C-alpha cells in the first residue's frame, strides 16, 4: 500500500523539490510524486486529485504556507499536510498545527529517515481520523434512524439495578404518553396493569434471564390509563466478546389490528353457528359443519392403512378399501356403491384443491363404515360454504366443487371441518339408512 502513495510537494525552489523527491524515493520508490510551485497551483491540483499526503513549504511566492494551509482546509480537504520550514520555529510550528497541519518539519533537519517517520505518522494519524469520522457518521445515521422510527424503541441496562431504561425514542413517548424524562431510570414494567397476563410477563422474564430474543404480545397501559396491545420484541445486545451489554425493546401498538381480528373472529364464529343450524335443518341432520376438530366424530376401528392421495393410484386404492370395508360391514350393494362414489368425489376434491391429501377407512362392528379424507389446502371461506356445499355444479378454487351436493344425497352422515389450515370430510354409511332427525 505504501508503494502506491500519492504525494504532492509544494515548493517554488526547484532544488528543494528535487531534494525532497530524492529523500522520498529512498523510502517509497514506487510513490507517485507531483509538484506545485505556488499555493494557487497546489489548491487547483488538490481540487482535481486525491493525495495521501502534501508536503507544503512554509514560504510560497503567492501566499504564506499558513494561509495556503487555511485555504486547503477551508476547501474541505482532510489530507495530511506536513509543513516544511526553512529554519524551524516552535511558535510557528504550534500555529500551523492549530490551523490543521499534521506535522511540522524544519528543512535543515531533513533526512530520509526523519521524513519517512513523519510521513508514516501523518498517514497513521489520518487513517485513525478517517475511522473516527466514519464511525461518527454511522452513529449519527443510526441515531437519526432510531429517532425517526415509528416503533417505540427503548434500551435498558441489565448491569444496573432492576434493568432500567437508559434511552427511549420519540415514538415510545408518542405510543405510551410518557416523556423520556419520566421513563429513563425506570424498569419498563410500569406499562403493565391489572389486565396484563402474568403468563406472558413470565415469558418476558424467562427470555431476559436466558439472554435470548423474543416477541410477545402484552396488554399495556398508556400514561392516561388507556389500555393498548403492545407487540414487544426484545433482543439482547452483546459486545465483541459476546458478553451481554444491553437489551433493546421495540414496541408496536397493534390495538387496531387486534380489535379488527377479534371482531372478525366473533363474526366468523357467529356466521358459522348460523350456517351450522341451517345445514343441519335443510339436510335433516345429515350434514354437520364442524367448528373444531372436537366436533368431528370419533374414528371407528381402522380397516386399512391411511392412503396418500398424492399418488395417482391413491383415489382408486381408497375406493378399494371402502369396498372391502362395506363388504365386511354387510352394507348392501347399492349403498356400498353410493359410499364408494362419494369417497371418490371427496378424494378428488382434495387432489384438485390441495394437490394432496390422505384418506382413511374405518369399520364399526354394528355394520357401519367411516371414511375420513383430509387435505392441507386453504379451505373454504365461510361466505362460500352455502354455495360450495349445497348448490349443484358450483365450484371455486377452495370450494368442495361439483360433487358435494351429490355426496350429501348419497351418504347417511357427512361431517365437514374447513379452515385456512385445510379441510377434513368424514363420511359415514350404515347397513340400513338412518331415520331423519325429526323422525
Ligand atoms: C428493553 C426492554 C423493554 C421492555 N419493554 C416492555 C414493554 O414495553 N412492556 C412491558 O410490559 N414490559 C416490557 N419489558 C419487560 C419488563 O421490563 C420486565 O422485564 C418484565 O415485567 C419482567 O420482569 P419483572 O418480573 O421484574 O417485572 C421490557 C424489558 C426490557 C429489558
What secondary-structure arrangement, pairings included, does this model have?
Blueprint (H helix, E strand, L loop, with lengths): L5 E5 L3 H14 L4 E5 L2 H10 L4 E5 L7 H10 L6 E5 L4 H9 L4 E4 L5 H37 L3 E5 L8 E4 L1 H7 L21 H12 L4 E8 L5 E12 L5 E10 L1 H28 L4 E3 L11 E2 L4 E2 L5 H16 L3 H22 L3 E7 L3 E8 L9 H6 L13 H7 L2 E7 L2 E9 L9
Parallel strand pairs: 1-2, 1-3, 3-4, 4-5, 11-16
Antiparallel strand pairs: 6-7, 6-10, 8-9, 9-10, 12-14, 13-14, 14-15, 15-17, 16-17
Helix pairs in contact: 1-5, 2-3, 9-10, 10-12
This protein binds flavin mononucleotide.
Flavin mononucleotide binds next to strand 6, helix 7, strand 8, strand 9 and strand 10.
Commentary on this structure:
This protein is α/β, with parallel strands linked by helices. It folds into three domains: 2-144, Response regulator (Rossmann fold); 149-253, PAS domain (Beta-Lactamase, 2-Layer Sandwich); 268-430, 2-Layer Sandwich (Heat Shock Protein 90). It is 41% helix and 23% strand. It contains twelve helices and 17 strands. The strands form three sheets. Strands 11, 12, 13, 14, 15, 16 and 17 form a seven-stranded mixed sheet that branches. It has a five-stranded parallel sheet with strand order 2-1-3-4-5, with helices on both faces. A five-stranded antiparallel sheet has the order 7-6-10-9-8, with helices on both faces. β3, α3 and β4 (81-85) form a beta-alpha-beta unit. The longest helix is centred in the first third of the chain and has 37 residues, at 112-148. It binds flavin mononucleotide (FMN). Flavin mononucleotide (FMN) is lined by residues 154, 156, 163, 187-189, 191-192, 201, 204-205, 208, 218, 220, 230, 232, 234, 247-249, 251.
Amino acid at each position: 500500500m505504501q508503494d502506491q502513495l500519492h504525494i504532492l510537494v509544494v515548493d517554488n525552489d526547484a532544488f528543494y523539490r528535487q531534494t525532497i523527491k530524492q529523500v522520498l524515493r529512498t523510502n517509497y520508490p514506487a510513490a507517485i510524486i507531483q509538484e506545485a510551485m505556488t499555493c494557487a497551483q497546489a489548491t487547483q491540483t488538490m481540487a482535481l486529485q486525491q493525495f495521501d499526503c502534501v508536503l507544503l513549504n512554509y514560504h510560497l511566492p503567492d501566499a504564506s504556507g499558513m494561509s495556503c494551509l487555511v485555504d486547503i482546509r477551508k476547501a474541505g480537504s482532510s489530507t495530511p499536510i506536513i509543513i516544511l520550514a526553512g529554519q524551524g520555529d516552535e511558535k510557528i510550528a504550534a500555529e500551523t498545527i492549530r490551523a490543521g497541519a499534521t506535522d511540522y518539519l524544519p528543512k535543515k533537519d531533513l533526512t530520509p529517515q526523519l521524513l519517512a517517520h513523519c510521513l508514516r505518522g501523518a498517514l497513521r494519524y489520518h487513517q485513525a481520523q478517517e475511522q473516527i469520522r466514519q464511525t461518527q457518521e454511522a452513529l449519527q445515521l443510526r441515531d437519526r434512524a432510531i429517532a425517526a422510527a415509528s416503533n417505540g424503541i427503548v434500551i435498558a441496562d441489565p448491569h444496573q439495578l432492576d434493568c432500567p431504561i437508559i434511552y427511549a425514542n420519540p415514538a415510545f413517548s408518542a405510543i405510551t404518553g410518557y416523556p423520556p424524562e419520566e421513563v429513563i431510570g425506570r424498569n419498563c414494567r410500569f406499562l403493565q396493569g391489572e389486565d396484563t397476563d402474568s403468563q406472558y410477563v413470565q415469558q418476558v422474564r424467562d427470555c431476559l434471564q436466558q439472554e435470548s430474543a423474543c416477541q410477545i404480545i402484552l396488554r399495556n397501559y398508556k400514561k392516561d390509563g388507556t389500555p393498548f396491545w403492545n407487540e414487544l420484541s426484545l433482543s439482547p445486545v452483546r459486545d465483541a466478546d459476546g458478553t451481554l451489554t444491553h437489551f433493546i425493546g421495540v414496541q408496536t401498538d397493534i390495538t387496531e389490528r387486534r380489535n379488527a381480528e377479534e371482531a372478525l373472529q366473533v363474526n366468523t364464529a357467529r356466521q358459522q353457528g348460523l350456517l351450522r343450524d341451517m345445514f343441519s335443518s335443510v339436510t335433516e341432520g345429515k350434514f354437520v359443519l364442524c367448528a373444531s376438530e372436537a366436533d368431528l366424530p370419533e374414528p371407528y376401528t381402522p380397516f386399512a392403512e391411511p392412503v396418500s392421495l398424492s399418488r395417482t393410484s391413491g383415489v382408486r386404492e381408497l375406493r378399494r378399501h371402502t369396498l372391502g370395508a362395506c363388504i365386511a360391514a354387510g352394507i348392501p350393494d347399492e349403498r356400498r356403491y353410493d359410499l364408494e362414489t362419494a369417497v371418490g368425489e371427496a378424494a378428488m376434491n382434495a387432489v384438485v384443491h390441495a394437490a394432496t391429501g390422505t384418506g382413511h377407512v374405518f369399520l364399526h362392528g354394528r355394520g357401519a363404515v367411516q371414511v375420513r379424507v383430509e387435505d392441507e389446502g386453504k379451505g373454504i371461506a365461510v361466505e362460500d360454504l352455502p354455495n360450495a356445499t349445497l348448490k349443484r355444479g358450483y365450484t371455486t378454487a377452495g370450494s368442495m366443487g361439483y360433487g358435494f351436493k351429490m355426496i350429501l344425497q348419497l351418504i347417511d352422515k357427512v361431517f365437514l371441518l374447513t379452515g385456512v389450515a385445510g379441510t377434513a370430510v368424514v363420511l359415514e354409511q350404515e347397513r340400513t339408512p338412518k331415520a331423519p332427525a325429526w323422525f
